[in-house]
Backbone:
């Protein structure tokens, strides 16, 4: 088994339960720096990519689709466009970095909600219809 296989296995385990990287980063960074607010933001930023992959896979399995990841990316792009438009109307200019992090952190909350909804559905499908 090569290094690439180990990396894929580690990602698969972390992606199945994306709360693991969130808690790990939150605790480690908090202990290292003592700044819980920054640790929370960093934990959100890192675990968002795992939540996106997991929710896309859950969406695809639940609805027998292949559009999960594309739907998430489309929602992120639309959200970025709406936030950029609102920022331009309010300030007269657009701060791309700020919009990116706003969309990224809103995606975290949306993916958490979707994860909480889709995991019980998938578990129910697996337990009550194992075919």
Residues:
């Amino acid at each position: 088994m090569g290094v690439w296989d180990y990396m894929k296995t580690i990602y698969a385990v972390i992606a199945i339960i994306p709360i693991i990287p969130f808690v790990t980063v939150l605790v480690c960074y908090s202990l290292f720096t003592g700044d819980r607010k920054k640790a929370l933001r960093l934990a959100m930023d890192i675990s968002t990519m795992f939540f996106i992959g997991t929710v896309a896979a859950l969406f695809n399995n639940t609805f027998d689709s292949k559009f999960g990841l594309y739907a998430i990316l489309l929602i992120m792009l639309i959200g970025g466009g709406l936030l950029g438009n609102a920022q331009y109307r309010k300030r007269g200019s657009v701060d791309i970095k700020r919009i990116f992090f706003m969309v990224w952190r809103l995606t975290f909350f949306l993916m958490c909600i979707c994860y909480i909804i889709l995991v019980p559905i998938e578990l129910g499908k697996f337990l009550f219809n194992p075919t």
